[in-house]
Amino acid sequence: MKLFFSLLLSFAWGFAHAQPPASDGAEEPVKLSVTAVEQGDAWDINVTTTIDHGWAVYSMNNYGDMGPWPTSIKVDSVAGRAIVGAATEGGPKIIEGIDEMFGMHVKKFKEQAVFTQRIMVDDPNTPVTGSFEYMTCNDEMCLPPATVYFIVPGLNSGSFELGPLPFDPNDTRFQGLATRSGSAEMKLANVDLNAPVIKGGEATIAETKSLWSIFFLGFIGGLVALLTPCVFPMIPLTVSFFTKGSEDKKTGLRNALTYGGFILGIYLLFSLPFHLLGSVNPEIFNEISTNPWLNIFFFVIFLVFAVSFFGYFEITLPSSWVNSMDQKASKFGGMIGIFFMALTLALVSFSCTGPILGSLLAGALTADGGAWQLTAGLGGFGMALALPFALFALFPSWLNSLPRSGSWLNSVKVVLGFAEIALAFKFLSNADLVKQWGIVPYELFMVVWVICALGIVLYLFGLIRFPHDSPVKSRSAMRWAFIAVFTATTIYLATGLRVDGEQKTFKPVALMSGLAPPAGYSWVLPKKAEAFHDLTEALAHARTVNKPLMIDFTGWACVNCRKMEEHVWPEQGVKEVIENEYVLVSLYVDDKRELPKEQQFIHETANGTKKPIITHGNKWATLQAENFVSASQPLYVLLSPDGRLLTDPVGYTPNKEEYKAFLERGLRGMQELP
User: Fold this and answer.
1) CA distance 544 to 670
2) CA distance 431 to 70
3) Spatial contact of 350 and 316, defined as CB atoms under 8 Å apart
C-alpha cells in the first residue's frame, strides 16, 4: 500500500501548471506596513507584508540573474545610526522547494512575512529612512519588482502604512534625480487604447484542463487497463459468477451492477487522503510536484514499473492482503461480500493498473483543481473498469464476442513498459531543469522518446522479445495497425530533432509542448529572434525601414513568455512575419540592471503617485502600466513607426492561428494608415 500511495503522489506532477486569471494591476497583491520596535539598546525596523491568496513574496536569498528578485530591507546609514547585523526574515507560512516559475529551488512566503533590520541610534527622535524591495508572483506571472521607500519620523512614532511611494523629495537618496510629470519616456503620445486602427478580438485567456477532460483522460486510461492480463481475464469469470451463480437473472444483474459501483467507489476513495492533505496544507500539490528529489524518486519508480511490465519480475501487493480480502468476500454475503470482491480486484490488478494511473494522471492534472482533479481522474478510471461488468451483465451474449486471452495481453504490458520509460524521463527532466545539472537537455530527452517509440515498433514486429513473449509467427490486422501508428509516432517525434539552419536551434514539435524541456535547454543553444531591447532605438529603426513595431513585454521569470517563444513564434506563418514584417523589441520588466545615472528619474503619474525609475525593469514595467494598463506578461503590442496603436494588444496566445491573425491585423492596420 505504501508503494501505491507513493504512486498516487506522482499524480501531482502536473499540478503546478495552473494558469489562473491574470491580474489587471488595479489592486496590489501585497500590502506593506513599517514599525519600529525597541529592543533594549537597539531598535528593530520591521516591514510587514500582507500577501493576497495565491501570491507569494520571495526571501532575501540571492538567486542570480535567472531567479526571482530577492527581497531586501535597507536602512540608510548616516551619522548617529549604526546597522546591527544582517536583516532577518520570517513568517507563518514558508514554502521551500522547486518553483515552477523559475525552475529552481527557492524560499518564499505566503499570507504574511516580516523582514527586520536591527539598528543602533544616538537619538530615537531622529527620522529613519530606508527602502524595501520585493517581487511578488502567483502561479501564472510575476509583477515587476517594486521599491518602496519609507520614512519613520521618530522611532517612538509607531506604525506607518506605506503607499506606492511615500518618500520625502528632499531625501538624500533622490538628490540629483529630477521629478518628471507625464514624462515622455513613460508616455507614448500617439497610443490610444480605445482607438486602435483595427479593433481586435477578445484577449486570449490561458486554457486550463476542466474536470471533465481529466475524467475523460482517466476513462481512457481505465480502458487501456482493461486490456492487461491482470484485468481482462477477470471480466468473463466475474460476470458469469454473478449471472449464473445468483438465484435469478434479476438478482445476478443487480449484483453485477453493485460490483461495478463498488469498483468506482473504491477508486474515488483513493483520492480522499489528498482532500484531507489539501485542507491542512493547500500547497501540498505544488510542494510535491516541484521537489527535485521527489521527481527523481518518481523517475526510479517508473523505471521499476517499466521493468516489471517487460516481465522480468512481478510487482504485487502482499499476498496476505489479497487472501484476507478474498476470505472476507467468501465469509460475508450480500453487499459486504460484493464490496470485498471489488476490493480484491483492485488489489490483484494493482501491478497493471497502478503504473497506468500514475503515468496518465501525472501529466494531466494541475494545481488549479487540486484534489478534485485527482478525484475526477480516478473517477474516470474506475468508471472504465466498472463499465464492462455492468454491460456484460446486461447483455450476457456479448461475452461470446470477447477475444480470448493470450499473448496479446502481454504485448499490451510491454508497450506500456516502453511508455513508462519515456514518462520516467519527464520526471528526471523536471529535476534536471530545477537543479540545472544539464544531464537531460532537449535533444537527449527527444532521443529517449524516439527510441521508446521505435522500440515498440521493433517489438511489435517481433524483433525484440521479453521473458513472457512467444515468437511472432504471424501478424494480425490489428497488430499491423498498431505498427503503423507507432511508426508514425516515431517519425513525428524524430522531426523534433530537426535543426533550423538559419536560427541554429531545434524545431520543437507541437505535441511535445510542456513535456520536453525548452529547446533553449540544449547542448546546441538556439538563437532567439533578433530583437532590440530599447524602445527608443527600436522606434528609430522602425521609422528608418518603415516597418511596424512589435513590443514584447516579457520577463526572465515569465513561463508563458518562454512557451510563446518556443512553441508559437517558430511556427510557420508566425516566424516569417515577425522576422520580416516587424521590428521586434523585447522589454524585460524584471531586468535588474541599473540605468545610467543620467537616465534615472522620479516619474510622477497623473494622480500624483511618484515612482523612481532606477533600473531597466522599472522603466519598462512603468511604461507598460502607464500606456497599456497591464502588469502581466507576456503582452504584445503592435505600433506604427510613429507610435500609433495598430490593433488591440494581446497576452498569452498559445493558439498559432489566433496569434497569426493578431500579427496580420497589425499589418492591415499599417496599410490603412494615411
Assistant:
1) 15
2) 23
3) yes
- What's the rounded mean pLDDT across residues 365-391? 75
pTM: 0.49
Amino acid in the structure at residue 558: C
Candidate from 33-37, 437-441, 571-575, 628-632 with smallest mean pLDDT:
628-632
What number of other Cβ atoms are within 10 A of residue 97's Cβ? 20
Q: Which residues contact 324 (CB under 8 A, 6 or more apart)?
A: none
Cβ proximity of 368 and 20 under 8 Å: yes
Handedness of CA 282, 283, 286, 292 (dihedral sign): negative
418 three-class SS: helix
pLDDT value at residue 22:
36
Quick: pLDDT tens for 446-481. Answer: 999 999 999 999 999 999 989 878 788 888 888 999
Locate cell 515622455: which residue?
A: 184
Tens-digit pLDDT profile for residues 113-138: 999 999 888 877 777 778 888 888 88
Report d(CA 451, CA 249) in Å as an integer. Answer: 51
Cα angle 277, 280, 281 (rounded to 5 degrees) comes to 80
User: What domains does the chain contain, in order, with CATH numbers?
Assistant: 2-12+210-440 (no CATH), 30-163 (2.60.40.1250), 535-672 (3.40.30.10)
Integer Cα distance of 109 and 260 in angstroms: 46
